[in-house]
Design goal:
There is one protein chain. It contains five helices and nine strands. Helix content is about 30%, strand content about 20%. It has about 190 residues and is α/β, with parallel strands linked by helices.
Length: about 190
């Protein structure tokens, strides 16, 4: 089954889900004593809807190791940088301050290491001389994130992508490096 879960009642994705007829659930982190209690409530919600695949998007909470282990191979995240560079927050500002020439986003399986799980796909773009933090964030979202994340989720839903003990398999073969924008199917370009 499908559902959208947020820890914040004002998350725009909840209203979009409702408009699409998808159950929209709030599991407010502030209502729980600690991360473990929140993770347990989140897991119970996902179990109730029999969720097979968990896609984190704008979910700015660190999940506990028990939740991650329980969801291994079914839990993916998109991060606005070319991992392993610029893990964590404020990636666009940090990329600009470092004078990088390119930037992008990465989709990866979630593991206990923050933004460190096996990579699925990365999209890159060149920085422009006039780029500022907000403009760069918008470009990364529209030129990269909104292409690579739906594509990765489609591959996962079709069973073409798997998390294995050795990393990531795509269509039965180990990935030695992340897929890229060149690998997008026509409907995701």
């Amino acid at each position: 089954a499908t559902c959208v879960v947020s820890s914040r009642a004002d998350a725009p994705g909840l209203e979009r889900a409702r408009q699409a007829g998808v159950p929209a659930i709030v599991v407010p982190h502030a209502a729980y004593a600690d991360r473990a209690a929140f993770d347990a409530a989140l897991a119970a919600t996902l179990d109730r809807y029999r969720v097979d695949l968990i896609a984190l998007a704008g979910f700015m909470r660190i999940l506990g190791n028990d939740f991650i282990r329980r969801s291994r191979g079914r839990l993916v995240n998109i991060h606005p940088s070319l991992l392993p560079q610029y893990r964590g927050l404020n990636t666009h500002r940090r990329v600009l301050e470092a004078g990088e020439r390119e930037h992008g986003a990465s989709v990866h399986f979630v593991t206990e290491e923050l933004d460190g799980g096996p990579m699925i796909i990365q999209g890159r773009l060149k920085l422009n001389p006039g780029d500022n933090e907000h403009g760069l964030m918008e470009r990364v979202m529209h030129e990269v994130e909104l292409k690579i994340y739906p594509q990765a989720l489609a591959w996962l839903a079709r069973g073409e992508l798997r998390y294995t003990a050795g990393g990531v398999e795509f269509r039965g073969r180990p990935l030695t490096m992340p897929l890229s924008l060149r690998d997008l199917e026509p409907e995701f370009r």
